[in-house]
Amino acid sequence: MARKKKERLDFSQMGELRQNPFADLAQSLGVAPANAAPAGDEPNVNSSSATHKPQPALLIRKEKRAKGKVVTCVYHLLDPHSYLKKLKTRFGTGGTIQDDVMELRGDHCEPIKDFFRAEGFKVR
């Protein structure tokens, strides 16, 4: 059976949407639009450092799994998801996060220590 070709809608002649359809509703409720910031209220770039929690020293160990396979484990990392993809790409290996512990396949202890020291972490 042949597939039907999907019909595409042509929006090129419509131009831009220049009016917010909910602007009148926002005014009647007394609510400021979501994209407008109050005057003089600029976000403070340095405010994130005040809420930053101190990072404990990272513990990086080499562990053996079933059938003699070696994995490198990184303990005490507060947000392991943000670094997992970077490390997997850099070392060309697989990895996962289990119980807040980042595990990378293979023996990568020293390169991982160097990576986190360059990022500003204390490493044991």
From TrEMBL:
The keyword Protein biosynthesis applies. Keywords: Initiation factor, Protein biosynthesis, Translation regulation. GO terms for molecular function: translation initiation factor activity. Pfam families: SUI1. Residues 58-120 form the SUI1 domain. InterPro entries: SUI1, SUI1_arc_bac, SUI1_dom_sf. CDD domains: YciH_like. It comes from the Bacteria. GO terms for biological process: regulation of translation. Residues 33-57 are annotated as: Disordered. This is Translation initiation factor.
